[in-house]
Design a protein that fits this description.
mainly alpha; 0% strand
Amino acid sequence: MDIEFIEKKFNEIIKELEKEVMEVLNNQSLDKKQTNLRMKPLTSTKKILLNALDSIKMVDKLAKEEIEKNKG
């Protein structure tokens, strides 16, 4: 599994999310409630992506350890 490629793609998505966050924060026409409502899905999505990336890395690590364990 190409973890570096996966991480790169996740980071690209996260950067796009961060751009959206900045657009929401800079939108002066939104009140605090509207801003918070628009921020929640963006921040939740980022957390989900980061957790998924951690999970993918852990699965890869465990798989590699299992392969090494079975070689011996």
